[in-house]
Amino acid sequence: MVAPSLIPRKPGDRVKINHRDAVSLARLLRAGELTAVWVPDERQEAMRDLVRARSAAVETLRATDSR
Q1: What one-character DSSP code corresponds to residue 16?
Q2: CA 38, CA 2: separation in Å to the nearest integer?
Q3: Which comes out higher in pLDDT, residue 44 or 29?
Q4: Which is more confidently placed, 3 or 26?
Q5: DSSP H helical segments within 1-67, as ranges?
């Protein structure tokens, strides 16, 4: 999987044409210019959500203590 933000683009190349995009992606893949991204599974995403919630709670406690 490739993140759209990591696909190299030329300035002004904003028009989306499926065939042209597919050919462009194939060329970039063949040239090794695409960076793969990792997509977490449900369990890993749930753990991330838990860690984010804990971090937010800790930050709220710190903000409350400093008032």
Answers
A1: -
A2: 9
A3: 44
A4: 26
A5: 18-31, 42-65
Nearest 5°: CA angle at 48, between 65 and 50? 50
CB 25 within 8 A of CB 7: yes
Q: What's phi and psi for 32, nearest 5 deg?
A: 75, 25
Comparing 44 with 16, which gets the higher pLDDT? 44
Percent of the chain at pLDDT exceeding 90: 46
Residue whose pair of structure tokens reads 């369990």 in the numeric block: 43
Claim: this prediction has a pTM higher than 0.70 = no
Residue 61: phi and psi, rounded to 5, are: -60, -45
57 in Cβ contact with 28 (< 8 Å): no
Exposure b/e, 33-53, CB count within 10 A at least 16 = b: ebeeeeeeeeeeeeeeeeeee
